[in-house]
Amino acid sequence: MESNCISLMLLLTVLGALVSGLETASGIPGIPGSHGVPGMSGKDGRDGPKGAKGGPGPSVSAGGLEESGDKGDPGIMGPIGKRGHRGPPGIKGDSGIMGVIGEKGKSGDYKSTLKSAFSAKRGVFVYPPRDIPIKFTDILSNDQNHYDSSTGKFTCRISGYYYFVYHATADNNLCVNMNKNGETITSFCSHGDFVQVNSGGLVLHLQVSDKVWLEATVYNALMGQRNHDSVFSGFLLFPD
Question: How many Cα atoms occupy the beta-carbon half-sphere of 138 within 13 Å?
Fold first, then answer.
């Protein structure tokens, strides 16, 4: 009972003080409240005006430079550029050292050179039969015996290019065919009832065993007598 009275008196005292504080606008400070929740950050402000240009900085001596770093890896090779203009010729260099002299070659032998040549004349005054080889029976030269006077044919023993020519005296119309292996290669003709000279020649490529001869046609007035000779010749120009 006594404790209740004391509590009541204290309560009355506090109330009286409160009333008195309200009347005088001053009172006992209250207990501070707890901190509130932090507010949101504000937005950045506007940029300020541009400042004045600063003065040059102090110079750095070479000794104050930082050391160079390690060399980097090579980059990827770029595309090949266009070819430039040709430069001026350089100065002629010194002569090189003379090489070693080679061994002396063997002596040549002109007699071993490939040869083939003949020349023969007709030895009778009888017109030759038509369409068969004309026989030039009087041999003027035939060291290799490649011409056969008994047949009137030349036989190739060395493959290569040959030149054949004939000079014929005729006292009438004459046509002479040059024949190779039975095929007429070319014809030479002259016409007239008087003594005249008929001639012709050509180059032929022959293989070994090819044969060449002359044949008369229906115009066969070919002579073969002293001072009216008819000659057939041929020789190798160069071998294959």
Answer: 11
